[in-house]
Backbone:
C-alpha cells in the first residue's frame, strides 16, 4: 500500500513514504518524527475501525515542534535540528558536493513552496462530502522536488520519490483511518513571483502527470458504506493532478473528474499546515537561482495563445494586403490617359425578331427559380424595324402586343425565353454593342439621396476612373440642367410608393432618365416613360427625350477640347399617347399580337399608309377608316386591336415616301470613324468603370448618408434592444447559485440566443426592400456584388444587427448576475456576435435565394424552432433517437448555447443548495453535464464551428448573389 517499494537489502521489508510503515506500508506513524524512519512507532489496527489502523483511537500525540495529522509536519526549525541529531548524531547532512561549505543548518520551511521535500496536511471541509461523511477528513500530501537535497534521503526505510524524480504522495484520512492513497510523477512547481524577506514565496502550484489512485477496500469511502461506495470513482482518477496553494493556508486538489464535481478550482482544502526540514544552504542556493531566472524573463506564452495571435496577425496582414492592392489598382486606373469621348451617332436595326416563352406550371422549384415549363407562347413574331440616330421613336400597341418585350430585347435585358433574329447597331459590326441605356417603367430610386447625390453616385461608378472628379461633377450639373431639374437638385427624392414623398412622378421619371444619361449612352431605350403621369408631365418628359435625340447626350471631354456632337437614337414604348404627345415622335412602330403592322415615319404617315392599304383591298380591306381630326395614336390602337390580321409591313418599305429626321451627311461621313474610336476607349459596355476600392468607397458613402439621415432606423433598433434587455434582465434578475438558479442561468442564455434567432428576421425585409435597386444598378454595371455585400456588412450588419445585440445582451448579462469578470463577459459577447453573424447571413441567404419573401420568412421561423429543439435546453441531446441525432451538428444555436454555458460554469460557479435536508455544494459543471450534456472543454471547438458556419454561409451568399440575384425578365 501507499506505493511502498521492496527493500533492496531485505526482501521481506518495505521502503515506505515518510509517516508510514509496517510490512505493507499500511500503518501510519504514531508519535515520533519522520526522521525515525523504519524505527518509528506505528498506529495499530483497531477493532472499532474494522481492523484498520486508527490514529484517533491509538492515542497518538505529536512531539514538540511537529503537527498535522500523523505528526509529519514540522513547525519549528529547532524541531528539525533535534530530530536530525537524535537519529544521525553529529553526522553531516550528506548534501550534494556543490553545497559543501555553505550554511547547512536545518530550518523548517512553513511556506507553500517546496525546496526539497515538504509535507502538508489540510482539512477537507466540503458540505456535500460532509453530508455523506460527517466525521473529519484530512488530506496529507508529501511533495518531493529533489530528494537528494532533503535530509530525509538517508533515513532508513524512507521513500521520498520513485526513481529520485519529482513526485507527490497523498493520503486521505477519515476519522483517523486512511481511505485511499494517490501518487503522481513527474511534477513541476510554479511558485509565485512575490518573494518575502526570508526567501519564502507566498503561493505555489504543483502540476504532476500520471496520476494514480487506489481505494482501500472496505474502508468507509470504499465500500464500508455500500450506498456511497466511491471505489470506481477514486480508482478512475487519472491524468494530470494539480495542487495549488496560496498564502491563506488554502489548497486545491484539482483533477478533471474532481473539477467536474467540486468546481473548476477542484476540491478545496482549508487550514493547511506546511512543514519542510531543509538545509539553509539549499534555500539560499535555489533562491538565488530562481531570482536570476525571474529577472531574466517573464512568463512564456502558451501554444494556444501563440496560435491565436498568429491567426489574428494573418487576418490583419491579409486585410491590409487587399487594401494596399486595391489602392494600387485604383491609382493605376486614375493615371490612365483619357482622350474624351461623345455619345450618339448609332442607329438600331432589328430584323425578324421572334420571342417565345414557355407556359409555366406550378412546381416546388418555382419557389426558388422560374416555374417549370409546359407549352409555348409567342410574344413576338418576326418583328422588324429600324431607327436612325437623332430620332425619337414610339412603339405603340394595345396591352399584350409585345412592346415591353421588344424594348427589353433591344436594351439587352436578360430574358427567360428564347428569341431569334438579329439586332444590330450600325456602324458597329454585328456582334458588337454600343452603350445602350434602359429606363424601366417603374422608377427605382434611392429615396434618401438628393437628386444631385443620386446622379453623382451614378457618375462616379459609370464613368471611367481616369476621368477627373471635377469633370464628373460638371457632367452631373449639365445633366441636371438638360433635364430641367435645377429647382429640385438639392431635394431628397423620397419614396416613389407615396410613403415619404419628396418629388413628383414626372420629376422622378426625368431623374431615371438622368441616371442613364450620365453614362453617355449611344442609344436610349425607355419603357413607357409617360405611364402614371398627367398630360403636362408626360409632355415634359417626352420633350426632354426629343431634345436628347436631336442634340445628343452629354459629352465627356477635357476643357479646351472640341468635338462634334451626334444625335442619340431614343426608343420609347408608349401605351396611349395624347394627340399632342403623339406628334412629338419622329417615327412609329406599331405592334399587334407580337406582329409589326407598321414601322416608319410618324405624324399622319401611318394613317395614310393604312388608308392606302384599305383602298387596295385584299387583306387590308377591313382596316378601319381614319376620320380627320381624330387622334392618330387612338386610330392606330384601334387598328391594332380590331384588325390584327392585316399583313405586316416589310422591313425597308417606306410607308408613303416620307422619312423622319436623320443624321446629317457630315455625321454619316465621320460616324463610323468616331464610333470605332469610342469602342476602344474606357466606356466599353459590359464592364465595371470603377475599380473595386472606388466601388466600395462610393457605396459606403451612400450607405452612411442613408444611415445618418434615417436616424429612426438605427435608434429604433437600439431602443428596442435596450427595452428587451431590461425585460430579460428583470425576468432573470440576479439568478442564484442553487440548482433552480443554475437552470435559470442557462434559461437566460437560451432566451438570448432564441431572441437573436427571431430578431434577425428583420434582415429579410431589408433584403426585399433593397433588392429592386440592387438589380437595376447591377444590370447597369454600377458595381460588383462583392462590393455591395461588403458595404451592407459594414453599414447594415454592424449598426443594425451587432450593436443592438451587444446592447440587449450586455444589459441582460449584468442584471442576471452572470459571471462578473471582464474575461468571461467578453468571451460571452464574442460568442453572441458570432451567432448574430451566422443568423444574419442565413437570413440574407434566404432573402437572396427565394423570390417570395413569405416563403423565406416561413423557412427562417421554422429553422429557429428547429434550433430551439436541438440546442440542448428542451431536450437532452443524449436522449434523441440516433436517426435524428445527427441534426444537432447542423444547429448553430446548439454550439452557441454550449459555448456560453461552458463559459459561465468556467468562471468557477458552484451550486449551493439543499436537497431533502442534505446540503449540496458541487460544481455547476456537473449539473450542466447531467442536465444538458454539454462538453466542458468544447468552448473553443464551438467557436471554430461558428466560424465555419460564417465562412460557409458567406460563400453561399456571395455565390447566390453572383449567380442568381440578377435581373431576368
Residues:
Amino acid at each position: 500500500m501507499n506505493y511502498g517499494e521492496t527493500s533492496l537489502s531485505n526482501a521481506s521489508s518495505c521502503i515506505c513514504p515518510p509517516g508510514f510503515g509496517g510490512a505493507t506500508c499500511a500503518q501510519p506513524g504514531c508519535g515520533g518524527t519522520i526522521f525515525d524512519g523504519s524505527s518509528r512507532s506505528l498506529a495499530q489496527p483497531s477493532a472499532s475501525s474494522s481492523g484498520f489502523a486508527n490514529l484517533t483511537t491509538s492515542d497518538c500525540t505529536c512531539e514538540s515542534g511537529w503537527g498535522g495529522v500523523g505528526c509529519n509536519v514540522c513547525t519549528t526549525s529547532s524541531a528539525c535540528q533535534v530530530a536530525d541529531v537524535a537519529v544521525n548524531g553529529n553526522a553531516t547532512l550528506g548534501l550534494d558536493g556543490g553545497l559543501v561549505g555553505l550554511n547547512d543548518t536545518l530550518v523548517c520551511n512553513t511556506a507553500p513552496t517546496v525546496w526539497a521535500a515538504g509535507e502538508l496536511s489540510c482539512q477537507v471541509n466540503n458540505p456535500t462530502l460532509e453530508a455523506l461523511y460527517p466525521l473529519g477528513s484530512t488530506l496529507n500530501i508529501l511533495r518531493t522536488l529533489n530528494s537528494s537535497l532533503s535530509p530525509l534521503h538517508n533515513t532508513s526505510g524512507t521513500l521520498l520519490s520513485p526513481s529520485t524524480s519529482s513526485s507527490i504522495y497523498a493520503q486521505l484520512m477519515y476519522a483517523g483511518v486512511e481511505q485511499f492513497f494517490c501518487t503522481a510523477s513527474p511534477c513541476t512547481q510554479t511558485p509565485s513571483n512575490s518573494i518575502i524577506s526570508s526567501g519564502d514565496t507566498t503561493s505555489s502550484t504543483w502540476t504532476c502527470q500520471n496520476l494514480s489512485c487506489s481505494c482501500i477496500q472496505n474502508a468507509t469511502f470504499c465500500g464500508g458504506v455500500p450506498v456511497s461506495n466511491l471505489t470506481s470513482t477514486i480508482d478512475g482518477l487519472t491524468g494530470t493532478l494539480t495542487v495549488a496553494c496560496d498564502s491563506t493556508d488554502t489548497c486545491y486538489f484539482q483533477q478533471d473528474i474532481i473539477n467536474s464535481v467540486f468546481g473548476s478550482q477542484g476540491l478545496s482544502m482549508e487550514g493547511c499546515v506546511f512543514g519542510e526540514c531543509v538545509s539553509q544552504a539549499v534555500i539560499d542556493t535555489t533562491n538565488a537561482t530562481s531570482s536570476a531566472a525571474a529577472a531574466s524573463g517573464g512568463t512564456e506564452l502558451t501554444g494556444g495563445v501563440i496560435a491565436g495571435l498568429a491567426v489574428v496577425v494573418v487576418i490583419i496582414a491579409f486585410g491590409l494586403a487587399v487594401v494596399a492592392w486595391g489602392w494600387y489598382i485604383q491609382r493605376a486606373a486614375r493615371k490612365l490617359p483619357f482622350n474624351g469621348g461623345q455619345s450618339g451617332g448609332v442607329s438600331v436595326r432589328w430584323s425578324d425578331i421572334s420571342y417565345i416563352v414557355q407556359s409555366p406550371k406550378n412546381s416546388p422549384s418555382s419557389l426558388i427559380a422560374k416555374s417549370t415549363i409546359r407549352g409555348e407562347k409567342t410574344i413576338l413574331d418576326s418583328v422588324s424595324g429600324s431607327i436612325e440616330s437623332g430620332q425619337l421613336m414610339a412603339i405603340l400597341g394595345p396591352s399584350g402586343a409585345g412592346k415591353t418585350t421588344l424594348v427589353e430585347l433591344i436594351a439587352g435585358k436578360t430574358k427567360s425565353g428564347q428569341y431569334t433574329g438579329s439586332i444590330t447597331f450600325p456602324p458597329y459590326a454585328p456582334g458588337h454593342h454600343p452603350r445602350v441605356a434602359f429606363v424601366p417603367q417603374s422608377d427605382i430610386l434611392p429615396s434618401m439621396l438628393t437628386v444631385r447625390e443620386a446622379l453623382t453616385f451614378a457618375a462616379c461608378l459609370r464613368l471611367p476612373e481616369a476621368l477627373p472628379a471635377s469633370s464628373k461633377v460638371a457632367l452631373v450639373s449639365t445633366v441636371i440642367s438638360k433635364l430641367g431639374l435645377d429647382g429640385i437638385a438639392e431635394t431628397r427624392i423620397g419614396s416613389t410608393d407615396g410613403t415619404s414623398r419628396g418629388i413628383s412622378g414626372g420629376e422622378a421619371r426625368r431623374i431615371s432618365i438622368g441616371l442613364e444619361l450620365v453614362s453617355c449612352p449611344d442609344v436610349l431605350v425607355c419603357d413607357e416613360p409617360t405611364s402614371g403621369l398627367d398630360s403636362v408631365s408626360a409632355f415634359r418628359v417626352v420633350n426632354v427625350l426629343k431634345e436628347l435625340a436631336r442634340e445628343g447626350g452629354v459629352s465627356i471631354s477635357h476643357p479646351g477640347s472640341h468635338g462634334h456632337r451626334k444625335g442619340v437614337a431614343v426608343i420609347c414604348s408608349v401605351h396611349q399617347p395624347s394627340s399632342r404627345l403623339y406628334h412629338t415622335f419622329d417615327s412609329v412602330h406599331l405592334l399587334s399580337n407580337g406582329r409589326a403592322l407598321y414601322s416608319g415615319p410618324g405624324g399622319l404617315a401611318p394613317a395614310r399608309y393604312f388608308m392606302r392599304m384599305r383602298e387596295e383591298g385584299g387583306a387590308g380591306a377591313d382596316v378601319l377608316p381614319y376620320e380627320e381630326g381624330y387622334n392618330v395614336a387612338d386610330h392606330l390602337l384601334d387598328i391594332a386591336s380590331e384588325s390584327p390580321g392585316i399583313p405586316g409591313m416589310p422591313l425597308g418599305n417606306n410607308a408613303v415616301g416620307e422619312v423622319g429626321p436623320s443624321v446629317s451627311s457630315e455625321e454619316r461621313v465621320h460616324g463610323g470613324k468616331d464610333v470605332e474610336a469610342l469602342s476602344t476607349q474606357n466606356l466599353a459596355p459590359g464592364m465595371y468603370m470603377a475599380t473595386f476600392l472606388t466601388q466600395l468607397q462610393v457605396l459606403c458613402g451612400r450607405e452612411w448618408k442613408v444611415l445618418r439621415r434615417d436616424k429612426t432606423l438605427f435608434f429604433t433598433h437600439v431602443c428596442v434592444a435596450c427595452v428587451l434587455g431590461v425585460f430579460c434582465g428583470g425576468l432573470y434578475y440576479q439568478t442564484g447559485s442553487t440548482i433552480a438558479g443554475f437552470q435559470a442561468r442557462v434559461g437566460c442564455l437560451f432566451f438570448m440566443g432564441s431572441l437573436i434567432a427571431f430578431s434577425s428576421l428583420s434582415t429579410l425585409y431589408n433584403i426585399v426592400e433593397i433588392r429592386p435597386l440592387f438589380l437595376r444598378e447591377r444590370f447597369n454595371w454600377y458595381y460588383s456584388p462583392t462590393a455591395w455585400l461588403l458595404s451592407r456588412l459594414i453599414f447594415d450588419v454592424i449598426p443594425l444587427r451587432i450593436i443592438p445585440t451587444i446592447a440587449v445582451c450586455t444589459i441582460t448579462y449584468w442584471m442576471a448576475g452572470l459571471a462578473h469578470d471582464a474575461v468571461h463577459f467578453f468571451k460571452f459577447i464574442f460568442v453572441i456576435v458570432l451567432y448574430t453573424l451566422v443568423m444574419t447571413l442565413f437570413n440574407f441567404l434566404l432573402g437572396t435565394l427565394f423570390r417570395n419573401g413569405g416563403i423565406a420568412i416561413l423557412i427562417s421561423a421554422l429553422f429557429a424552432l428547429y434550433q430551439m429543439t436541438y440546442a440542448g435546453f428542451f431536450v437532452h441531446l443524449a436522449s434523441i433517437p440516433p436517426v435524428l441525432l445527427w441534426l444537432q451538428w447542423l444547429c448553430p444555436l446548439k454550439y452557441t448555447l454550449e459555448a456560453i454555458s461552458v463559459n459561465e460554469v468556467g468562471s468557477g460557479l458552484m451550486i449551493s443548495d439543499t436537497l431533502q435536508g442534505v446540503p449540496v455544494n458541487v460544481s455547476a459543471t456537473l449539473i450542466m453535464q447531467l442536465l444538458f450534456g454539454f462538453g466542458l472543454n468544447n468552448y473553443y471547438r464551438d467557436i471554430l464551428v461558428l466560424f465555419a458556419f460564417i465562412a460557409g454561409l458567406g460563400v453561399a451568399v456571395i455565390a447566390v448573389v453572383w449567380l442568381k440575384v440578377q435581373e431576368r425578365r
In short: Residues 194-200, 294-299, 558-564, 654-684 have pLDDT under 50 and may be disordered. Residues 303-334 form the longest helix (32 residues). The CA atoms of residues 820 and 886 lie 35 Å apart.
